[in-house]
Structures are given as structure tokens and as C-alpha cells.
Amino acid sequence: MILGVGLDICQISRMAEAIRHPRFLERVFSEEERAYLESKGGTAAQSAAGMYAAKEAFLKARGTGIDSLGLDRIEVLHTPGGQPCYRLSGAYGELSVTAHLSISHDGGVAAAVCILEGEPGQGKE
Question: Of 55, 60, 78, 124, which is the active-site residue?
Fold first, then answer.
């Protein structure tokens, strides 16, 4: 059963400025995500904007918005083929949900959609 759908967009130029600040990077992105962004070189801001939008989309799909559980606990990783996927940890990791993710970039923005699947009552613990 679909529990929720979330959509978010993020301006890439805004993210380019934000990722220049180590505190922002540490608060929002896990160590593995930061290493991925570092590997992206000149496209790091585009990737970071997509990943940030994906985190927001997940929270919107849950129906909670930003909470105190930590954005770095909603990791956006990539399969060997490059497909984005979530890895949830902390309290998010205890949720009994499957989270589907799609990210796109165009015209200076990144957009992400998250679809949460699970049993009724799950996803908002």
C-alpha cells in the first residue's frame, strides 16, 4: 500500500553556496554522501541539490517535514548502475517502509520524488 508521496525541488546555485560550508555538509550529509559529492568535482552542487531534494521528498512522503531525527540519517546512495536509492539509519531505519526514489536535474534545479510503501500506520514512527 502506498503510504505517501513526496516531491521537492532545490535550486542548484543555492546548493553550490551551501556546500561551501563544512558545517552544512556535516549536518545534512553522511560521511559516505560527502565522499560521493567530493568525487563529483564540478557537478557536486548538482548532485548535492538532488540528494537534498530527495531527503525533503522522503520527509514529505512521511507527512512530517523536517524533524529533529537528522537529515544525515536519510542517506541518498547510488546502485552500481547509478540509480539513486535510500539507506535509512537511526530512528528512520526502524521504519517498516520501502522508499522508492527518482531524481532529475534541469534548468538550474534538481527535483526528487519519493514514494513510500508499507502497511497502514507505518512510516510515521
Answer: 60
Give Cβ neighbours of residue 119 (< 8 Å, ≥ 6 apart).
1, 96
The structural domains of the chain, with segments of one domain joined by +, span 2-118
* Catalytic residue list contains 60: yes
Q: How far apart are CA 92 and CA 59, in angstroms?
A: 10
Q: What is the pLDDT of residues 74-111, one digit of tens each?
A: 999 999 998 999 999 888 878 888 999 999 999 999 99
pTM for the whole structure:
0.92
Architecture of domain 2-118: Alpha-Beta Complex (3.90)
